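User: I've been trying to design a sequence by hand for this structure and keep getting stuck. Would you show me what you'd pick, starting by listing the structure so we're on the same page?

Assistant: Good idea, let's start from the same input. This is the structure you sent:
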């Protein structure tokens, strides 16, 4: 397994701001691990559509994959089966305020993945993929009710290979014109941080089971490490 994701085509080669491009496998995975939502785009019979979706990442000797899931009634997912799709994960780390609005920006980490999404039909592989997606968001697969056959039948899972992937990262201060550096205008960064709060019981919780330890442990943690 290579340590890089060399672009298989120019489709994921970062051209504008190429100095911020990242193709390292570890760096791409670090961003995917820190994110929670992938915006997935696909061309449908009614035109293009982009939807935010939970995801997970599966790594193996045969290749890494981004896993997404939804209802079998989801027109976008149905259209995405064996069709070219694009998935983007973005984390905003702060506002970059320059001396002129022209140079305002954001500090961010982002990943773009393009490729052919394929439905996972093998029952065991489907369950394994759903566990990866679930545990990336809320790791309760082993402590919650096991999904029923009906649950699985109503769910479509797609695998998107990580063969065409690239990341783009910006950090640091604004980049202002030399002529503005001695001027009277403020410049700097406003960090954006997100932490998980303490779990609260559902209003219809009829008994008093303890909060799963994996969920309780999230309280106070950085949501995008």
């Amino acid at each position: 397994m290579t340590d890089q994701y060399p672009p298989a085509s120019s489709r994921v080669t970062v051209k504008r701001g190429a100095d911020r491009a990242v193709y390292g496998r570890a760096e791409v995975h670090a961003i995917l691990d820190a994110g929670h939502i992938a915006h997935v785009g696909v061309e449908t019979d009614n035109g293009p559509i982009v939807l935010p979706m939970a995801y997970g990442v599966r790594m193996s000797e045969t290749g890494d994959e981004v896993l997404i899931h939804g209802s079998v009634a989801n027109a976008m997912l149905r259209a995405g089966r064996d069709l070219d799709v694009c998935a983007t994960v973005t984390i905003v780390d702060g506002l970059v305020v320059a001396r002129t609005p022209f140079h305002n920006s954001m500090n961010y980490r982002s990943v773009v993945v393009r490729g052919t999404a394929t439905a996972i039909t093998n029952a065991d592989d489907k369950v394994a993929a759903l566990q990866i997606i679930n545990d990336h968001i809320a790791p309760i697969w082993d402590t919650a009710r096991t999904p029923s056959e009906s649950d699985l039948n109503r769910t479509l899972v797609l695998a998107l290979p990580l063969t065409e992937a690239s990341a783009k990262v910006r950090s640091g201060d604004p980049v202002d014109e030399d002529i503005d550096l001695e001027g009277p205008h403020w410049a700097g960064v406003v960090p954006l941080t997100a932490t998980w709060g303490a779990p609260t019981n559902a209003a219809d919780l009829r008994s008093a089971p303890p909060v799963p330890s994996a969920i309780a442990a999230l309280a106070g943690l950085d949501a995008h490490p």
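That's my pick for every position. To get oriented when you compare it with your attempt: The chain has a mean pLDDT of 90. The longest strand covers residues 83-97.
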